[in-house]
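Page 37, continued from 36.
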């Protein structure tokens, strides 16, 4: 009976760990593989790590806040900046 409970917890961690990792801008596949090995411990670890930087954003050259690459004005400090060319991802 105890084995059934641990198996269910392991399957739940296999589902939750990549979801939480992706919301924190981390690799879902890497955390899924880690959850295969560590089970619920991987879910706890990914919940405790700080979020990563969104790769779709860039820092403002004046105030260093993260903004969209195509922005021509920073929404935090209102400075005019050069927009970057955005390459579409397929």
């Amino acid at each position: 009976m105890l084995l059934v409970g641990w198996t269910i917890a392991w399957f739940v961690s296999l589902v939750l760990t990549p979801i939480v990792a992706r919301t924190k801008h981390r690799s879902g596949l890497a955390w899924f593989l880690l959850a295969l090995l560590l089970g619920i411990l991987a879910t706890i670890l990914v919940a405790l790590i700080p979020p990563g930087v969104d790769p779709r954003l860039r820092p403002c050259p004046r105030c260093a806040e993260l903004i969209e690459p195509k922005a021509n004005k920073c929404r935090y400090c209102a400075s005019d900046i050069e927009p970057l060319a955005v390459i579409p991802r397929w």
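Residues 53-90 form one domain. Flag for discussion at group meeting. The chain has a mean pLDDT of 88.
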